[in-house]
What we know:
4 helices; Arc Repressor Mutant, subunit A; mainly alpha
Amino acid sequence: MRDGVRLELSEREHSMMAKLAQAQGEPVSRDILGEVSWEAALNSRAVDVQINRLRRQVEIDPANPKIILTRRNRGYCLAKPDPVS
């Protein structure tokens, strides 16, 4: 959900989000994320395209992501939630 609205994710987007969530804030490689779809497995740039599509769904400002983060040479990860004081 974003801003109280349920997001409608494609099967690929949902699978990628699940892999990122399972990693609990640790980077997930493009290879692992590429297992979600046949075309992404053939081309790591296809993973980047899928991540960009996913960011457009979940991020307020996809150009400056705060939820799905890039970890250079390691992959992508979900930001760890801020602890509530």
